[in-house]
Structures are given as structure tokens and as C-alpha cells.
Write a structure and sequence with these properties.
The complex is a heterotrimer of chains A (539), B (435) and C (353). In chain A, 24% of the residues lie in helices and 20% in strands. Chain A is α+β, with helices and mostly antiparallel strands. The longest helix of chain A is centred in the first third of the chain and has 16 residues, at 97-112. Chain B is α/β, with parallel strands linked by helices. Chain B folds into 3 domains: 19-229, NADH-ubiquinone oxidoreductase 51kDa subunit (Rossmann fold); 239-322, Roll (Ubiquitin-like (UB roll)); 327-414, NADH-ubiquinone oxidoreductase 51kDa subunit, iron-sulphur binding domain (de novo design (two linked rop proteins), Up-down Bundle), CATH 1.20.1440.230. In chain B, strand 8 and strand 9 form a beta hairpin. The chains are: A alpha+beta (539), B alpha/beta (435), C alpha+beta (353). Chains in contact: A-B, A-C, B-C.
């Protein structure tokens, strides 16, 4: 609530370094940030609940206390709201018993009214309170049952449970995607700040005051926003849970694959959390330049379709035969690349085009509408790798040309391009092309219209790279959830058709360097986890 | 009881709510050429020399506060009058506004001249509707007489005063919470810095002053600043409006110079303790540490003496308690009050005041245990200096001091529980069987 | 496996026994509505149409326009607009909160947060006479708990409840700011310790007693059909031009030169063998300062110190010289400072050992 306009200043690579004294030892820290980030930069973790690097500072959890030497002696200050000043003297629990006790006391207060239902809580395992407890608390309870817990929640939700205890606010339906458990809420107000300052739609608010405060929407209204699932990410405890992930999996059983969401040209950085050969959830992966900590619902929930309606794996010799037959009679081949094609796919596609010479022509683009960036984690452009197309010299917007000249071609090869699914009316002209070959992960409308349809791997299952709308080269990693091990990435198939099989993504990426000078100096392994800004980028 | 110069309460009971009466009593004499020929800097210097300190509780020098307001920042400067008087035992502003609203308006015009303010807001607590009516009536008269509005008295100076009715939140007496409330938000204190003098209401420089502070200005301007300064102590000038309540014969509002002995206030102004012998005095409102009868005998009512006795002067609200009361009952009142009025921002305050309140309630109900007092003291240790505003200490301080000074009262209550010696049962869980 | 499950069942039932408490009837739920504005039951809400019909009257529209003109941002008027809603209904229905949010240009959820934060907004209908008793420390000392118990008994309701005839609602509230007259109560918006001339009064030196409460209740019964009402915002102030820039405001911003420019204050001059040293207190708005020395009846300019300087030395100055300083800010020149007669600088005091 406090000063809602105070966004924290985060350190960057260019931050000036200043000397401060932590526990009387001099250390060099970034000078233009807050103490919490500065201490993090030198490896000192400060427990915190309400602070989030991409939300305005509210400073209400009082967990990140440190001691600062001031004109009036040593004072306790909150690290998240104290700017770094050269020469300042800071004391952490490592040297100050007062800080240790203060953090412990805050921890104790935070747990006074918190239900210890960790065994059935979805957040258990990644809960900030649990982490802080192990770090700062570890205190034995001093409370008697008679002191009682205060009922946290909407008075209209309270009931008496089987044990005779006053309970309430369980699984409150906040909206189509989010459930609220009022008892678990620690009133950090992160979700309120997210909805107000980031999503720009103040749908959540803390009602009431003192320890009767509870999170609520306006009565009768639902929490419904393109980014509403982000509130479950920012929630430090299990108060906000996503309906799709409730009681699905204990989080410590999940493995995490860092990759890029290929349904938007911003290329949001994500974690694919998987176990038992399937994806359980998609979480935003923090990248300060791209999507910060946010992810749209569209990108987050897309995974539910990844293993459905897949095309089976097949041998590719028949494509070879069709293409060479066409070439021998002087017919032309149209090679169409869709937005989810990686740099490696495009390299293989260009090789194929080169091997076919003048009888093949490259097309690319989408029939979907291009929207405007929302300033959070979507650029609005469904052609995910559009900048990569430009870089690789593959046309990124000439489908209209293809439709116009459909009669010239004998063979149509679509790669990751669901032309019929995007706009059946516009694509209907393509039915004039006698041989239609679809390389696609899904049995979509284009595959249905194709004369030959071949299954390939989905972008979540391949190694690769893409260039996002900010001209940042980003790396995709393969999540081991491929429904059929026989499925192969598009670049393998295409390069094989061209007569030079790429065994792995780094080989394909090396080939891409031959087509795009900007990539020639790079290797696939040198792509950083947060991406490499290419020249001419405007991140 | 020496007759003292009345600075703020001189018009009490004289019908000064009417502008004609107020003018006859010497009101609005300051809104004249003398003020109009003063520069902002001269006026601030004048107030600084009078040694006037804020009367809201913190006692910050008013002139110095004004001098912090940046000039020529390109943003309007706001004056906000803090009339959100909610501290237990304080009721001076209520009667000041009720009896002499024009003095507040006159003081505000002077303050506005010093700060170059265009608009002032009187943030009056919601319960004081009669005060708001009184001020609004006075404002209407002042507008009609030309003391407010555009080009006041033919100068280039324009000034408007608005009354903002609060809606029941003690914490809005904290200046940044008050500003949040004025902006139409919840009254929750803000993180500092920036301080309101630099970035307050709507991110503009804002001066928040107590009603009594503003109402002292007309008198100070009429007289020499040194005359005001010499009435008080060396570090705080002037008289103070004291509120005396509790077990005294004549509770009420009394104006007296700073530094008056506490027993003089109780015996001579308020007519002495009734109903029993003096047990304790809260010298500065409900949130301060109590003084025992022995300590009260030597205390004087000023900032320094009370600070040296580890309590505080606060708003000068004395609550007198006789020996028929058990201090636990009174502390339970405070627990009820502060846990109810916590804004719910900082964890220690939000959860801690509620917990203390529940524990105190149990003790009063005769369900206390040995060790409860030590636990409460230990919990209060977790309040010190860790929250945004001092509300948590307003309960933590009394809990620490009441338990230290009146331990026998607590033991008396705890002894009423037949099981008071029963140790806390450690509920043991057997992890590992489910997973 | 079997033993495993049995063990778990045993564990659960053991715990049940350990934590079993006597079943509590639902009626015994503590009602936060006693102290907070909201209640633990869903309150029947009037329909949006009904609410808007009552709120969108020309009179209220005018009040709202007046309120909005007072604040640079519309949201500032939120508390006051919610008061208008409470003035119409006696409480704030949800649709009223939504309407207030719309008037002030903020989100409905924000207005809900505000309306539930402040305790004076009622979230359920109250009786015709809202009796609010102070239970804070001063009133408790003077016997408020006994008095509240007396009222509960005589009205036959508990705190937080409304009498069946809908006449009285009894609340306990925190400090009412009238501790000198404690115990204190509010009857609707009036502080009352007694009835005089058919009016509720609070006079210095009087307090509530069981007898005066009886008189007040009698007064309430007498005015049952014609409850005296105050304007929720304490009346309308005419003549103000609003806040400069706010919608509907006619006020212009303050001009920078409404007051005369600041002179230099408190000039002091002290001379020693190095000349006269001048010190002064400077205002923040100076752009230029000129030091002048008296020469017969004329003033000679002797120097121009920087505006941030703390001292100025005139090498030719000696004891008895008269100086003054003139400050300029922009194009405006302030009146001259006080005339400072130079005195002998005291010899530096040896530091005590």
C-alpha cells in the first residue's frame, strides 16, 4: 500500500561499484540499488516476503531487517527499502544478535495466525515462509492453544470445523483460474500490487484492517485477467493457487527445463516443470530484459495441449520421392515456414532450398492478426521467430504472395505452419497445389488437408534457438516429455531431405551462421540462459 | 495556581464561533498590512524564534519543519491540519475546533503565507461532526468577509481551506497515513523517506501540523516571538493545552505553560484525585508509560523531564488513575484499542497487537498462566523499531512498562486461574508416517 | 502396506482425540461486526437500480461536483463520496461503493478496500439511533463497562445488535475524543451526556450516568418518527474556487510573487586585524546579495558574496563601520537588511584542558 510508486532499482551489469562494510568487512556492491539486491550480489541472502524485484516496494513484512550504523547509533532498517550508500556500515545476523532476534521475532509473529497445513499445501517445498523459517526462524512455538488463532478471512466465509475450531476462507473461488485460501494469507499484498501496478487492473484488494485483513475481489466480481495466474507465482505462501495445478504434484518431485515460449515473438522465458514424462506446469523464468517474472495465461496454459492430438512419426523417404519427381518434371516446390520454426529449422530449410535450386521457393508468415505489445510479457506477434526469419533471409510475411501464385506450384511443404487452421478461407486457394506435405507436431487442419502429413517434435521437445522481437538470441532446451521417441526435430528431417543430416542443434546452428553473418561468431553452447543481445537490438 | 496567558483557549465560552464576536475579541487582526509586508522567510524565522514545537505528540519544531519545504519546486505546497485526534485521553482539538474555529482559520492563513500554499485541508476525524459543522460555518463567514478565496484583502495572495472528514481510523493521526487517507486510499503509513515536507500529498511538498500548533500562530504573530518563547522551557516555548481525564474532580481542557509540575496540574487545575489515592498517571496519552505516584510527585509537564523519566510528553493528555483500578483491566483496554486500530501493514504490529490483546483478555478472564507476563514482555521486544510507524510500540511500550511497574496486579489476576501453574503442553507430531 | 495404513488411521484418530473440543454452536461465533464495520452474514443488498435511483439526484450530483473540484485527483474525494452514500442509506451498500468508485475514477475493489478499512462506514443497515459507547482507557476508568452493561440490559440487546423494533443499534467504539466528559457516547452524530431543552448536549463537566442515559433514551423514543439528521459533511461551504486544475475548479495557482521578496536577516559584523567579517541568515530564494557600507549619508557597495556563502570579509572594515545587505531574487529586490554596526571580534578562547 505504502508508496505504491516506488519501484525498486535493480543492479545491472553497468552498475557502479561502491564499497560498503558488511559485518565490518569491506565489500564492493552495486551502488545504484537497494541493500537487499546489493547483498544478494555478494552472495548474502536476506529473507524477505513482501519484496519482489519487479513490484513496487511496500516494506510491510519486516523480515529483511538489517542493522545500519547511523548518526543515532545502530538502527534496524529494512534492506529492501534502504538505498546503498558508499561507506555505509551494515550488520547482518552473522555478527548481530539483534538482527537475528528481530528476524526471529518477525517470523514468530508471521506464524502466529498461519495454519500449519504444509502437508496438504501446494506451495510446500517452494514456500517463502518455509524457506525463511529454515533460515531465520527455527524457533520452537511458545504459544498455548488457549491464545487461539485469529480468524483470517472474510467474515462471511467462516465456519466451525469438525474439531470445533473456527475456520474459514478455504478454497474461495476468486475467478476462472485462481483459488484463494484466506487462512494461509500473510497479507504481504504482492498480489494486490501486481494487479494494480503491473497488470494495470486493480481487481484485488485487502479488505478490513489489522489482523482481520483478507484478500478479496469486489463482491460479485471475478479475478479475470490475461495475467491473473501471475498472482499465484508472486504469492509467497499457498494462499493463491492455480486451479490447473492444485493437488497435481508435489513441487519437489518436479524437474525443471529452461526454455522459451514459442507462441509469441517476445519469446517469454519459461520453466517447463515436468515429471513422469509429462509437463505439469509452466512457470515464468526471470529475465530482466524480456518478460521479467511474468507470463501470460495463454503461454502458461498452452502446455495442456502439447501432448494431445499429435501426429505420429513416419519415414521421410516418400517426401524425398515426391520432391525429386516434381523436380524432374520441372514443377516448382513451395517451402512454407511457420512462426515456431527455430533458427536451426530455418537453416535446414535454406539448405533444402539451395539443394533444389530454382525449382523451390521460400515462404513464411502467418494468417493470424498481429497485435500490439502489452508491455508485460507479450509482444502480440504470433510469429515467434520473426526476427530470426529476417536474420536468416527467410521471408516472414509473404503468404499473400503464395496464395496469389498457388497455381504455379506442384508441391507445398509446410513446416510448423498451420495455414488452414489459421485462416481456412485464405488458405483454401492452396488446395490447388496437387501435393501438399505437412510437417507438423499436431494433427491440425493443415495436416488434415495434406496429402502427406508427418509428425515432428514440438518446440518444447527440441534444442534450438530463436531471436525475439527485441533482437535477443534465446536458447530452447528439450524437455524429456516427447510422446514418441521416434519423432524427430524439423531441422533433422529437413537437413536429411537436403542431403546433409544435422545430428544435433549445434551443427544446425553452425550452418545457420553461414546464412546469417550476425550468428557466425557464435556457437550454440555460447548462448546464455538469459539470451544474447544481437547487434542492432533495442532491448 | 498562577494565572497564565491563554494563547489558544482565550475565547472559550465567549461565543467566538461567530465572526463578529471573534473580531471584537481581536480576531483576524493579523490579516493586515503587517503580514502582507512580511516575506515568507521572515515569517518562518519569526516562528522559529518563538520556539513553537508541534503539539501533536512528536514535538518537532514548527519553524524548522516549515523551513524544510522546498521553494520553487514547481509543485503546489499543501498545508494539512491534523485534526484526527484519536489517542486515548486526548480531547483538546475537539474543543479548540468547537469553540474557536476562526482562530484555526486565521492561523492557517498565516501558515499559508509562510509556505506559499494555495490550498489547505483540515483532516478532521469522522466522529467530530459537530466540529466540522462549526468549522464549515466559520469558513462560510470567512469567505464572505474576504479572508479566504482569491486575492485576499486586495493582495495577490489566494488561499482556500477544505475540510476532509475522516471515517474512523486512529492510525490516520500519523502524518503519512493521514496523507494517504486524504488521497482517498487506506490510511496506512508510508515508507520514509521521502518525507511529506518534500513529497507528501499527491507527491507535492506537504506540511502536516496539529490544530493546536496552527491555533498558536495568531497569538505569536500579535506578540513578540520572544514573549512566547519565554513562557515555556528553554527548548520548547509557549503554553500547552493540557487534557486531564480520569479520576480527577474536574476533568477537562486547561492551558498552562510548559514545565508546570504534574501535581500542580492534578491538584490545582483539575481539583485533585477522587475515588481513592493516586496510583498512576499517564502523562501523554494512552500510549505512554505510566508514572507511579512517587514519580508523578517530582515530574514536570514538559518534553525533556518526561523523556528523562522514560515516558513521553506526547500530546499533553494526562490520564489520572486511582488505586481502585487494576492496571491489567486498563492494559486490556489498550490491547483492545491498538489491536483494533493497527492498519494491518507490518507483520509484527498486525499479528503482535492481536496476540497481546488475546493474551490480556485471557488474563482478565482468569485464564492466565505463569510465564504469560514474561512471554508478553518478550513479544514486545520484537516490536522495537521494526515497523513503519510507532503504533506497535504504542502497545508494546505500555505492556512492558505496566508489567514492570505493576507486576502485582498481573499476578493477582493470574492467581485466579486454578491451573495457572500448568506448563505448556508441547504437542508432538510423529512425522514420517504419512510420507 | 496394510500395517502402514492401519498406523496412519491410528495416528489420525489419536490426534482427533487429542484435539477434540466440545462442539461449538454456530450462534456462538464471535462477530467481528461488533468492532468492525462488516458482519459475519451476507447482508441483503439493494438492487443496482434502486441504489442508483437514490444516488443520482441533482442534489447529490452537485455535492459530488463540489467535492471533486477540491482535490487535484478525483480519488481524493472517495472518503467524502462514500459519506454521501452513507448519508442517503444510513450504510454503504455494495452498489453504493461501486458508484462512489465510478464517481471518483478508481477501481471498485479499491473503494471496497477503503470502505472496509475505515470503521465508520456501516456495511449493514443500522437502527434509527446508533448508540456508540467509548470503551477506551479514560472512559473505562470512569466506569464505561458498567454503563454499557446497563444499557445492554435496559435495551435487552448485546453490543453489535439492533433492537427488534429497529430503533437502536448499540456499538462499542474506540476513543471518541471527549475523555474529559467520560464515559461518553455518540447518538448518531451527536456527542451526548444529557438532554436539555429537547436537545442532546455535551457540556463541560458533565458525564453520562444511568439517569441521563434514561433521559437520552426517552428523547430518542420521542423523536422516533423524526430523527434529527446532520449533513454528513457538516454543511456546504460556499465561495471556494476549488483546487487549481481540478474538474470544475475556478481557482488559479498561487503566483510566485504574492509576498515581498525575502531580505537578508540577522546580519552581524565583527572586526579584527584582517578586516570585518559579516555573517547572516539567508533565504533559499536569493539569486544575488550585495553588501553595502555606510559612508556618511550614502551607501557604498563593497562586495557581492555568493548566495551559498556563509560569511563575507571586508578587508578594509574596522570597528564602528555600519554594513547592510540587499538580496535580489530574480527581478525583485528585497528591502535592505538590518544595519549592522561592526564590533570587536572577541579573542579566541583558549581551549580548556
Amino acid at each position: 500500500m505504502s508508496n505504491y510508486y516506488n519501484m525498486p532499482k535493480l543492479p545491472t551489469e553497468n552498475s557502479p561499484k561502491v564499497e560498503i562494510f558488511v559485518d565490518d568487512k569491506p565489500v564492493m556492491v552495486p551502488g545504484d540499488t537497494n541493500l537487499l539486491e546489493a547483498l544478494k550480489a555478494v552472495g548474502i541472502e536476506t529473507p524477505h516476503v513482501c519484496y519482489h524485484p519487479y513490484l513496487p516496494v511496500s516494506g510491510n513484512c519486516r523480515q529483511c531487517l538489517v542493522e545500519q550504523e547511523g548518526p543515532r547509533g545502530r538502527m534496524l532498517v529494512i534492506a529492501c527499502y534502504t538505498p546503498v550508500a558508499p561507506g555505509m556500515k551494515i550488520y547482518t545476523p552473522a555478527s548481530s544478535a539483534r538482527v537475528k532476534n528481530a528476524r526471529k521475532a518477525t517470523q514468530e509473529f508471521m506464524l502466529v495466525n498461519h495454519p500449519l497445513d504444509c502437508p496438504i499445501c501446494d506451495k510446500a517445498g517452494e514456500c517463502t515462509l518455509q524457506e525463511n523459517y529454515m533460515e531465520a526462524g527455527q524457533n520452537e512455538s511458545r504459544m498455548r492453544p488457549e491464545y487461539g488463532k485469529n480468524y483470517h478471512g472474510n467474515p462471511a466465509h467462516q465456519f466451525i470445523d469438525a474439531k470445533g475450531q473456527l475456520r474459514g476462507g478455504k478454497h474461495v473461488d476468486l475467478g476462472p483460474r485462481v483459488l484463494l485460501d484466506e487462512e494461509r494469507c500473510v497479507q504481504c499484498d504482492r498480489c494486490v500490487r501486481f494487479m494494480r501496478s503491473i497488470a494495470g487492473s486493480e481487481q484485488l484488494q485487502l479488505a478490513g484492517r489489522a489482523d482481520h485483513t483478507y484478500i478479496t475481489t469486489f463482491p460479485g466480481e471475478k479475478l479475470d485477467h490475461e495475467y491473473d495466474l501471475c498472482v499465484t507465482d508472486v504469492c509467497p505462501v499457498g494462499a493463491m493457487t492455480a486451479k490447473y495445478f492444485r493437488f497435481q504434484k508435489r513441487v519437489w518431485l518436479l524437474s525443471h527445463t529452461p526454455t522459451i515460449s514459442m507462441d509469441d515473438s517476445l519469446g517469454a522465458n519459461i520453466w517447463l516443470d515436468h515429471a513422469d514424462g509429462r509437463i505439469y506446469r509452466v512457470m515464468p523464468r526471470c529475465n530482466p530484459e524480456v518478460n521479467r517474472s511474468w507470463l501470460s495465461n495463454t503461454s502458461r496454459l498452452a502446455f495442456q495441449q502439447f501432448d494431445k492430438n499429435r501426429l505420429p512419426a513416419m519415414g521421410f523417404r516418400v517426401i524425398q520421392e515426391v520432391i525429386s519427381e516434381t523436380k524432374s518434371v520441372g514443377g516448382k516446390v513451395a517451402l512454407v515456414a511457420g512462426g515456431a520454426c527455430t533458427i536451426e529449422d530455418l537453416a535446414a530449410l535454406r539448405m533444402l532450398k539451395d539443394s533444389l535450386g530454382d525449382s523451390a521457393e521460400l515462404f513464411g508468415g502467418t494468417f493470424k492478426k498481429v497485435g500490439a505489445p502489452d508491455g508485460i510479457a507479450m509482444s502480440g506477434d504470433p510469429m515467434a521467430n520473426r526476427m530470426g526469419f529476417k536474420l536468416m533471409g527467410v521471408p516472414d510475411d509473404n503468404l499473400a504472395d503464395l496464395v496469389k501464385r498457388a497455381g504455379e506450384f506442384k508441391v507445398l511443404v509446410t513446416v510448423n505452419a498451420d495455414l488452414f487452421g489459421e485462416d481456412a478461407a485464405a488458405a483454401s486457394a492452396l488446395e490447388k497445389i496437387p501435393s501438399r506435405i505437412a510437417l507438423s507436431a499436431f494433427n491440425d487442419a493443415t495436416a488434415a488437408k495434406a496429402t502427406l502429413a508427418f509428425g515432428i517434435r514440438h518446440w518444447s521437445e527440441i534444442q534450438g534457438s530463436m531471436v525475439n522481437s527485441l533482437n535477443i538470441l534465446q536458447k530452447l532446451n528439450a524437455c524429456p516429455v516427447c510422446p514418441d521417441e521416434k519423432l524427430r526435430p524439423a531441422y533433422e528431417v529437413l537437413s536429411e531431405l537436403a542431403g546433409a543430416k544435422f545430428g544435433c542443434a549445434s551443427e544446425a546452428f553452425r550452418q545457420a551462421g553461414a546464412y546469417a553473418p550476425a550468428l557466425s561468431g557464435l556457437t550454440y553452447d555460447s548462448i546464455k540462459s538469459t539470451g544474447n543481445l544481437l547487434e542492432g537490438g533495442n532491448a | 495556581m498562577a494565572e497564565c496567558v491563554k494563547v489558544c483557549t482565550q475565547n472559550f465560552g465567549k461565543g467566538a464561533q461567530d465572526i463578529e464576536v471573534y473580531k471584537k475579541l481581536g480576531g483576524y487582526a493579523n490579516i493586515s498590512e503587517r503580514l502582507f509586508n512580511m516575506s515568507q522567510f521572515e515569517l518562518i524565522d519569526y516562528v522559529q524564534r518563538s520556539n513553537l514545537r508541534g503539539r501533536g505528540g512528536a514535538g518537532f519544531p514548527t519553524g524548522m519543519k516549515w523551513s524544510f519545504v522546498p521553494r520553487n519546486s514547481g509543485k503546489p505546497v499543501y498545508i494539512v491540519v491534523n485534526a484526527d485526534e484519536g489517542e486515548g485521553g486526548t480531547f483538546k482539538d475537539h474543543f479548540l475546533m468547537l469553540e474557536d474555529p476562526h482562530r484555526l482559520i486565521e492561523g492557517l492563513i498565516i501558515a499559508a503565507w509562510a509556505l506559499g500554499s494555495r490550498a489547505a485541508y483540515i483532516y478532521c476525524r469522522g466522529e467530530f461532526l459537530p466540529c466540522i459543522e462549526s468549522i464549515n460555518k466559520a469558513l462560510n463567514q470567512a469567505y464572505a468577509a474576504g479572508y479566504l478565496g482569491e486575492n485576499i484583502m486586495g493582495t495577490k495572495f489566494c488561499f482556500d481551506i477544505f475540510v476532509h472528514r475522516g471515517a474512523g481510523a486512529y492510525i490516520c493521526g500519523e502524518e503519512t497515513a493521514l496523507i494517504n487517507s486524504l488521497e482517498g486510499q487506506k490510511g496506512q503509513p508510508r515508507l520514509k523517506p521521502p518525507f511529506p515536507a518534500v513529497s507528501g500529498a499527491w507527491k507535492s511538498p506537504t506540511c502536516v501540523n496539529n490544530v493546536e500548533t496552527i491555533m498558536a500562530l495568531p497569538w505569536i504573530l500579535q506578540h513578540d516571538p520572544s514573549e512566547y518563547a519565554k513562557m515555556g522551557t528553554p527548548r520548547a516555548g509557549g503554553t500547552k493545552v493540557f487534557c486531564i481525564s480520569g479520576d480527577v474532580k474536574n476533568p477537562g481542557v486547561y492551558e498552562a505553560p510548559l514545565g508546570t509540575p504534574m501535581m500542580t496540574m492534578i491538584n490545582e487545575y483539575a481539583g485533585g484525585v477522587v475515588g481513592g489515592k493516586l496510583k498512576a498517571v499517564l502523562p501523554g496519552g494512552s500510549s505512554c508509560a505510566p508514572l507511579t505516584a512517587e514519580e508523578a510527585a517530582v515530574a514536570t509537564m514538559d518534553y525533556e523531564c518526561l523523556a528523562s523519566m522514560k515516558t513521553m510528553f506526547g500530546s499533553g493528555a494526562m490520564i489520572v488513575i486511582n488505586d481502585t483500578h487494576n492496571m491489567v483491566d486498563l492494559l486490556n483496554c489498550l490491547g483492545n484499542f491498538y489491536s483494533h486500530e493497527s492498519c494491518g501493514q507490518c507483520t509484527p504490529c498486525r499479528e503482535g497487537t492481536g496476540l497481546l490483546h488475546r493474551m490480556l483478555n485471557l488474563i482478565v478472564e482468569g485464564k492466565g498462566h505463569d510465564g504469560d507476563v514474561e512471554l508478553m514482555q518478550s513479544l514486545c521486544g520484537g516490536f522495537g523499531g521494526v515497523t513503519i510507524c510507532p503504533l506497535s510500540i504504542s502497545l508494546g511500550g505500555p505492556v512492558s512498562s505496566y508489567t514492570a511497574k505493576f507486576r502485582a496486579d498481573f499476578d493477582e489476576y493470574i492467581a485466579k486461574n486454578p491451573d495457572h501453574a500448568k506448563p505448556r503442553v508441547q504437542e508432538t507430531y510423529r512425522p514420517g508416517i504419512f510420507w | 502396506m496394510r500395517e502402514h495404513i492401519q498406523g496412519a488411521v491410528q495416528f489420525v484418530s489419536n490426534n482427533r482425540l487429542k484435539f477434540d473440543r466440545p462442539a461449538q454452536p454456530i450462534e456462538a461465533l464471535p462477530d467481528p461486526g461488533q468492532t468492525f464495520g462488516y458482519v459475519n452474514k451476507e447482508v441483503p443488498q439493494p438492487s443496482p437500480k434502486e441504489v442508483l435511483a437514490k444516488l443520482e439526484t441533482p442534489e447529490i450530483k452537485e455535492r459530488c461536483a463540489d467535492l471533486l473540484s477540491r482535490y487535484p485527483v478525483g480519488q481524493g474525494a472517495l472518503l467524502e463520496v462514500l459519506w454521501l452514500v452513507q448519508g442517503v442509506f444510513g450504510w454503504v451498500p455494495r452498489e453504493g461503493i461501486r458508484w462512489a468508485a465510478k464517481v471518483c475514477g478508481c477501481a471498485p475493489a479499491h473503494a471496497l478496500g477503503v470502505a472496509t478499512f475505515y470503521t465508520m462506514y456501516n456495511h449493514a443497515p443500522k437502527g434509527k439511533f446508533l448508540l456508540q459507547f467509548c470503551r477506551n482507557i479514560s472512559c473505562t476508568i470512569k466506569g464505561a463497562p458498567a454503563l454499557i452493561a446497563h444499557v445492554e440490559k435496559s435495551l435487552n440487546i448485546k453490543t453489535g445488535e439492533t433492537t427488534p423494533d429497529g430503533l437502536f443499534t448499540l456499538l462499542q467504539v474506540e476513543c471518541l475524543g471527549s475523555c474529559g466528559n467520560g464515559p461518553m457516547m455518540l447518538v448518531n452524530d451527536d456527542f451526548a451526556t444529557d438532554v436539555e431543552n429537547d436537545q442532546l448536549v455535551m457540556k463541560p463537566g458533565t458525564t453520562l450516568t444511568e439517569e441521563s442515559i434514561a433521559r437520552i433514551l426517552k428523547w430518542c423514543y420521542a423523536h422516533e418518527d423524526n430523527v434529527p439528521k446532520h449533513d454528513v459533511l457538516g454543511g456546504i461551504v460556499k465561495g471556494h474556487g476549488g483546487h487549481p486544475g481540478a474538474p470544475g475548479a475556478t481557482a488559479k495557482p498561487q503566483v510566485a510573487d504574492y509576498a515581498p521578496p525575502s531580505p537578508v536577516l540577522n546580519v552581524k559584523a565583527e572586526a579584527d586585524e584582517n578586516g570585518a567579517t559579516l555573517t547572516w541568515k539567508g533565504a533559499p530564494e536569493f539569486t544575488k546579495i550585495v553588501v553595502e557600507k555606510k559612508n556618511g549619508s550614502k551607501w557604498d557597495v563593497v562586495g557581492e558574496p555568493g548566495v551559498k556563502d556563509k560569511a563575507f570579509v571586508d578587508a578594509a572594515g574596522k570597528v564602528g563601520d555600519v554594513y547592510r545587505m540587499i538580496a535580489t531574487s530574480g527581478e525583485r529586490t528585497a528591502k535592505p537588511s538590518n544595519e549592522a554596526v561592526t564590533t570587536q571580534k572577541p579573542a579566541p578562547v583558549e581551549e580548556a584542558k
